[in-house]
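Hey, resending since the last one bounced:
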Amino acid sequence: MLNLFKNKAVRRKLSSLITAAKYLGLSDSDCKIALAYLEVNEWGLCFDQIITQIYEFDIAIDTEFYGLIADIANDFELKDDDYSFIQSLIKD
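The structure tokens again:
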């Protein structure tokens, strides 16, 4: 049962990440792709779509957004090197 709760929590976090990315200026098409991945439970692809496109388009992020990325990465048991490149976009 614990896994079910964790899965729901991760899904909510990814949904929040998509919403926040759209607010920060990520294109509708990139957000729709990420949402499509989320809907078919391809969570890693969803996460990768968001952080890669945010980075590729050099979209400024804040520490809260980065914290959400780090939290999701922790849920996926990713190493810091797998996502820390996006820290360069933090503009508070």
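The radius of gyration is 12 Å.

Sorry for the duplicate.
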